Amino acid sequence: VVAKALERRALAQENKQLRERLETRTRFDQLVGESEPMQRVYSLVDMVADSAVTVLLTGESGTGKELVARAIHHRSARADGPFVTMNCGALPENLFESELFGYEKGAFTGAMATKAGRFELAHGGTLLLDEVGELSLKSQVDFLRVLETKEFRRLGGTKVITVDARIIAATNRNLEEAVKQGLFREDLYYRLNVVPLRLPALRERLEDVGDLVRHFLRQAAREGLGQKSIEQA
Fold it and tell me: What pTM value is reported for the model?
């Protein structure tokens, strides 16, 4: 009787832990991991989600900065609004302004129609500026002005457009060091670094490796690898 009671208790505890894991994964989209460093990330996401403060996500490439940004968005009051991303590192300086602010028809050669920029498209939602540390100094000035006022004009336009979009920035660079080297504006850095959230590298949370392996195996199964191959792996 005692053995059965202990077994029932162990099963109940295991079931509770599995439910908590499922709840965590549901709440935080594709974020995987239950280690202490990841619990701190989840806690901070919960703390900032419902506010409108700007968040600066830092960490090495592959640590899941965009996933965290999406989790913040989906847990906020803006969840029904758009989530727009812009990869600053993939844009030449001469295209940054037109991509962020949009342009009017005829603003330049090839502008055959008016186009809304990423900032405008994010109205009512969240704009993620990925690789923000790659912005040129000129682009930093352009963005700082909009970040302060939330107002801008499309390229070639005269109408002032006001946008309500939450800003989340992400970078794998050390922006403090970039400021010291004169590569990143100090005033922009402090505007972005209202709430800093550093994402741990995998070597800092090795206990999550098993969960990550299972996550990627399940993902592979959904993509058609097959259950037998999964079991063999």
Answer: 0.79
